Amino acid sequence: MAAKVSWEWFNVFGVRPLAGRVFRPEEDQPHANQVAVLAYPTWQRLFGGDPAILGKSIRLNQQDYRVVGVMGPDFDWPRRTEIWVPLALPPGEFAPDNFFNENYFVVARARPDVSPAKAEAFVKVLTRRLIAANPQSAYAKDSGWGMFAVPFTEYGAGDLRTPMLILLGAVGFVLLIACSNIGGLILARASARAKEFDSRSFGRTEARPVSPSPARGIPVDGGRGRPRHRSGLRRSWNLTQARAGTASVSPPRWH
Questions:
Q1: What are the beta bridge partners of residue 58?
Q2: Mean pLDDT over residues 16-26, rounded?
Q3: Which of 1, 126, 171, 217 is the most exposed place for a label (fewest CB within 10 A)?
Q4: 161 SS3 class
Q5: Residue 146 contacts by C-beta under 8 Å, 6 or more apart in sequence?
Q6: Nearest in space to 3 (alpha carbons), one of 70, 78, 97, 57
Q7: Selection from 41, 88, 49 nearest residue 65 by Cα
Q8: 97-126 mean pLDDT
């Protein structure tokens, strides 16, 4: 698809060609508009991205157009445009009897201090003045003709404010759920680690070595200084000897 545009078209959008140049004022005139600017996909598909295409002629509608530039891949307005050529309006197109022509799409760049609301109000004032100043305005009055100004992003993609807010809220909600799940996993892991530490600490404090009980004293007769029961002493001594022969006397080893 080819688009006819004025020489200021690319400057209004603030874009620069990837190769070559854009249109000049003298080329935007009738019978002087035999130049063309290629879109990036067209340049790649039809000419293999050859930079030597600049300055060469291509055939459009049985007419030769000289290629003067190639736009970058980030610009294709109007959408799906394959090539741009100068609009080259004749002087009659600017005559008063052609003011209400609706065949053209106009893009303007507002100053930074001009809001979309101010631009819309200014265009409405121009519409009323234009209708009042022209005797051929019967058609405009009867048909409700008028001019309007909207931000270019809203014109090209529609009102995105409400869908974007809904999308932002949905993304935030999903992110909140993910954060809560991660927080729950971290808390559960920390709780399990705390229980493991408690179990290890409990095992260390309870597993204490058992020291042997101190030997009990043997009752001694207070008057004579001898054991009160010889037989008891002998039995105890024999029992001790018997136990000493079978029991291990090495200290316990803790593993």
A1: 65
A2: 95
A3: 217
A4: helix
A5: 124, 127, 140
A6: 78
A7: 88
A8: 85
Separation CA 187–CA 183 (nearest Å): 6
Question: Would you say 139 and 100 are in contact if contact means Cβ atoms under 8 Å apart?
Answer: yes
- Quote the CA–CA distance of 144 and 138 in Å, as a whole number: 10
Partners of 83 in beta bridges: 2, 38
Q: How far apart are CA 73 and CA 154, in angstroms?
A: 22
Tell me which amino acid residue 173 is: F
- The number of C-alpha atoms within 13 Å of 77 and in the hemisphere containing its C-beta is 17
Q: How far is CA 91 from the centre of its chain?
A: 49
Give CA–CA dist 46/67, Å, rounded: 13
Please say whether the beta carbons of 97 and 68 come within 8 A. Answer: no
**DSSP code of 220?**
B
pLDDT at residue 160, as a whole number: 65
Q: Average pLDDT, stretch 227-240?
A: 42
Number of H-type helices and E-type strands within the chain: 7, 6
Does 191 score more than 80 pLDDT?
no
Q: Which pTM value belongs to this model? A: 0.59
> φ and ψ at 20, to 5 degrees?
75, -140
pLDDT of residue 69: 97
Distance (Å, whole) CA 22 – CA 75: 13
Mean pLDDT calculated for residue range 200-211: 50
CB atoms within 10 A of CB 75: 16
Region for 105 from its dihedrals, namely left if φ exceeds 0, alpha if ψ lies in -120 to 50, beta otherwise: beta
Cα torsion angle, 223, 224, 225, 227, sign: negative
